[in-house]
Amino acid sequence: MHLAQINVGRLRAPVDSPLVAEFMAALDPINAIAEESPGFVWRFQTEEGNATAVRPYEDEDILINLSVWESIEALEAFVYRSDHTAYLRRRREWFGRIDEAMLTLWWVPAGTVPTLDEAVARLDHLRAHGPTPHAFTFRQRFPAPPTVDGACSPESSRSSVGS
Fold first, then answer.
1. What is the spatial distance between Cα 142 and Cα 59, in angstroms, rounded to a whole number?
2. Is the pLDDT of residue 162 over 70?
3. Per residue in 103-161, pLDDT tens?
């Protein structure tokens, strides 16, 4: 099993605003750090190489980040112990407050990636029900579900990596 994550943020200004220019300029380098990190598997991106053009919410200021990692520990190392951490500490310069959960984690079968709709649904589930094995957080984690002969239940299977 691999770990999927989605996190969202509400930009303080449009992506072409000087207010968020430093954040926007850092996207490619930070994404490169993620991709080179031990345990990185996949990240959602458009042809431009990031996900800033995709708006799955009615609020056009909400940006998303969706990725898959080999483990919670691998994702945690990238988030909290890499050059990404300096930008995370500065997030309030570029992002406004969201009063709901902004990040959720869940397990996916190795070799598959979640759809954007699934990721949004997982975050919505966390917001509605709190941490559960279906959608959880770094603070309240759940172990990977057991597999049978290397496969998990049909409901958790998604598209294959690279499709």
1. 30
2. no
3. 999 999 999 999 999 999 999 999 999 999 999 999 999 999 987 554 444 344 444 44
List, in sequence order, the alpha helices (H) in the chain: 21-36, 72-81, 84-89, 91-94, 116-129
Domains identified in the chain, total number: 1
| φ, ψ at 93 (rounded to 5°) | -70, -30
**Sequence-separated (6 or more) residues with CB below 8 Å from residue 45:** 31, 51
Strands 40-43 and 62-69, by their bridges, are antiparallel
Q: Is residue 128 part of a domain?
A: yes
Contact 143, 73 (CB under 8 A): no
Is 161 part of a structural domain of the chain? no
Residue 59 lies in a domain: yes
What contacts 24+ positions apart, CB below 8 Å, involve 47-51? none
pLDDT value of position 147: 73
Q: pTM value?
A: 0.86
User: What would the pLDDT profile of 39-73 be if each residue is shown by its tens digit?
Assistant: 999 999 988 888 888 989 888 899 999 999 999 99
The answer as to whether 107 is a domain residue is yes
Domain that residue 111 falls in: 2-156
CATH number at residue 74: 3.30.70.100
